[in-house]
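Memo to structure team: turn this sequence into structure tokens by end of day. - J.P.
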Amino acid sequence: MRQFNQAVEKNGFTHKDAEILVRGKLAGTANAPVLEVSGTRIDTACLRDAHLDIVSLLGKTVTVSGVIPQAPKGKGL
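Reply from structure team:
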């Protein structure tokens, strides 16, 4: 998320809560899942606590929706 927030600031936008819908490939491991989206790798720590069978989803294309909360300027999540 830090990478995302830095890109937002670099492009001159201000942080606000954002509803997201992301489609990508779930990679990594069950303990450290990573969502690969257009050449980026997003740590999906929030999925570790979800009631999902991560192992069965590894290597598959998934759609993730949620809210990225507003972060203070200069701070990453």
